[in-house]
Specification:
By secondary structure, the chain is an alpha+beta fold. The protein has helices at 22-25, 30-43, 75-82, 87-106, 157-160, 167-183, 197-206, 219-225, 236-245, 253-256, 259-278, 375-378, and strands at 2-8, 14-20, 52-55, 64-68, 109-110, 119-120, 127-128, 135-136, 148-149, 315-317, 334-335, 385-386, 392-397, 400-402, 407-410, 413-417, 423-426, 432-435, 444-447, 453-456, 462-465, 475-479, 484-488, 491-496. It folds into two domains: 1-366, Orthogonal Bundle (Transferase(Phosphotransferase), domain 1); 375-496, Bulb-type lectin domain (Agglutinin, subunit A).
Length: 500
């Protein structure tokens, strides 16, 4: 639906700035729907939602929405990478998310798209995001006849048949999310299973949920919440009381969350701050609430029109990336007929990038990347370094393959594929200057003959890509200014690593 930019105010507050594609802005009724998202997001002011900071005035183009930035992975990404949550973290998550849903209902709204991809595992407490399809709880309207709005496997049966999605639907979705957090899959799918959305919706409407693997103290509560009849489900208030009876209370998330998550949040916070601190100044007025500190590099990203007299976007990230972006698409994903399900989260493999290409992620959520090279290319000799020229300290030609623990160094920068699966650029003091934010044992990094830098998992699937494929003869350059870039001739296709 658009792009989300990591931005900052003139005072240094980090923001997620969502901009809308021009063609969508001109669609009849879209401005009203976008305005409703803004109103819904601003209406629910609670510790479990993100704060709306500013937004575009009516009639202005491009349309945009600025919220606080939460450098945290989504529940979908975390479980996909690390597996189900341990019981203490699961119980704490249940209490926090119940409070989040309760806050939405107390504001007179129904969220209508509670799913793992819309939950950020922040340091202080989880956040429930994306109010793109939220409506007043008594609003009987839906998109159009025969269309289900929501995410298969997590939406309620009353949503699946196109009925009114009110507060009981959110309670059903919350329970389905907690089953996912406990088992790694929704209560209506099996681990690793990929089935058509229509088949998944059929299970939601007609079959009983599978709670195998859910802790005994939670199973009865979730069973009640997953009742087919909306009237038989407990309210969020009642569910919260049940959880408290079992010792699950709000406020304990920082202690209950996985230790590894805490370390990754520190990395994410540092990376975000480093990126915006390195953005060039825009000269925005000091009293501008959401003036952004810099613009996207015109040689590496599509130009986004500046908001007249004010805001300009800084470092881009792929739209819908929950690991670092606060907001997903404006409208809900709509599933009709036998459209293939793309899973519980649109971003299991997509990751934020520093300055660089912002082509959308692939339809399955992983970054688009060229297929593995042919056997002849895979067996080609090790890359040779061409003589340095201009400001280049090292020029590496394709094909370069980095196995776990391997690195390549040029000047005071090193490109390393770490044992945790993250591709990182370090300076001479071992300070991380950029990271692909990928995880997994056995990951490899490959600078391919088509000019694309890709991180693959142990199964050969791409997790992140520079999106520079299609440029045979491109080179990877370690520059004297501290940037690591991919160039085709004199054209910079991608850049990361930050300037000294």
């Amino acid at each position: 639906m658009g792009q989300v930019y990591l931005s900052r105010t003139a005072s240094g507050r980090l923001l997620a700035l969502k901009t809308i594609r021009e063609d969508l802005s001109s669609d009849p009724g879209f401005e009203e729907r976008f305005a409703r998202e803004i109103e819904s997001s601003d209406r629910v002011r609670s510790p479990w939602t993100v704060t709306v900071v500013d937004y575009s005035p009516p009639g202005r183009r491009p349309q945009w929405l600025a919220t606080e930035y939460v450098p945290a992975p989504s529940l979908a990404d975390w479980v996909a990478a690390h597996g189900p949550l341990p019981t203490p973290a699961l119980l704490s998550l249940a209490a926090e998310l119940c409070a989040a849903v309760r806050a939405v209902h107390q504001a007179g709204l129904a969220h209508r798209d509670v799913k793992p991809g819309n939950i950020l595992l922040a340091r202080d407490r989880p956040r429930l995001i994306d109010f793109g399809v939220a409506r007043a709880a008594d609003d009987s309207r839906h998109t159009r006849l025969g269309v289900s709005v929501g995410s298969p496997g997590f939406l309620a049966p009353d949503q699946a048949v196109g009925g009114v999605a009110a507060e009981p639907a959110d309670v059903f979705s919350l329970a389905a999310v907690l089953v996912y957090a406990a088992t790694g899959h929704s209560p209506f799918s099996r681990a690793g299973e990929q089935i058509p959305a229509a088949s998944l919706l059929y299970r939601v409407v007609h079959e009983e949920p599978d709670l195998t693997g859910v802790p005994a103290e939670l199973a009865p509560l979730l069973t009640a919440c997953l009742a087919k009849d909306p009237a038989a489900r407990p309210t969020a208030d009642r569910l919260g009381a049940w959880l408290e009876e079992r010792g699950a209370r709000t406020g304990g998330w920082p202690e209950a969350c996985p230790t590894l998550l805490g370390g990754q949040l520190t990395e994410a916070e540092h990376s975000a701050r480093t990126l915006v601190d390195l953005a060039p100044a825009s000269g925005a007025a000091p009293d501008d609430r959401t003036a952004v500190a810099g613009t996207a590099r015109s040689d590496t990203v599509p130009a986004v029109p500046a908001v007249p007299g004010r805001r300009r976007p800084a470092w881009p990230v792929t739209a819908g990336v929950a690991a670092v972006a606060v907001l997903a698409a404006v409208a809900a994903t709509v599933y009709v007929g036998t459209q293939e399900s793309s899973g519980s989260s649109p971003s299991s493999g997509s990751r934020a990038r520093a300055s660089g290409s912002v082509a959308p992620a692939g339809g399955d959520g992983t970054a688009s990347a060229s297929p593995r090279q042919t056997q002849e290319q895979q067996e080609s000799p090790q890359p040779q370094e061409s003589p340095a020229k201009d400001t280049a300290l090292k020029v590496v030609q394709a094909t370069l393959e980095l196995a776990t623990g391997a690195s390549v160094t040029g000047g005071n920068r090193s490109l390393v594929i770490q044992p945790d699966g993250n591709l990182v650029i370090y300076d001479a003091d071992h300070t991380a200057r950029w990271a692909s934010r990928t995880t997994g044992e056995g990951n490899t990094a490959r600078f391919q003959a088509d000019g694309n830098l890709v991180v693959y998992n142990s199964g050969g699937q791409p997790l992140w890509a520079s999106q520079t494929n299609g440029h045979d003869g491109a080179v990877l350059v370690f520059q004297a200014d501290g940037n690591v870039v991919i160039k085709s001739g004199d054209t910079v296709l991608w850049a990361a690593g930050s300037q000294d």
